[in-house]
Amino acid sequence: MEAETHAEIYALTTANRLMLADILDSLDEVQWCTPTLCPGWRVPEMAAHLVQPVLTSFAHVFLTALRYRGDTDRTVDHITRSIARRPRPS
What we know:
Largest sheet: none
Number of domains: 1
Distance between the termini: 42 Å
Strand content: under 5%
Helix content: 55-70%
Radius of gyration: 16 Å
Structural class: mainly alpha
Shape: flat
Number of helices: 5
């Protein structure tokens, strides 16, 4: 199997992100508030977790990790929930 070029990888990644955005955009309010397989997380938290690396700086993650004394689960949960609280784009 040939290694994919950066352009091909970028195109596939972009297509996957757009597909996910379309799926999330198609959800009604009941579906949007549905619990996921991650305890305590609904669809907004899962969606926020998926975009967290794009929206969160290393400094923010580092400072939040200090706040939670290096507890990665609590750090990620805190950042994810803060992103999920943002208004849903219309």
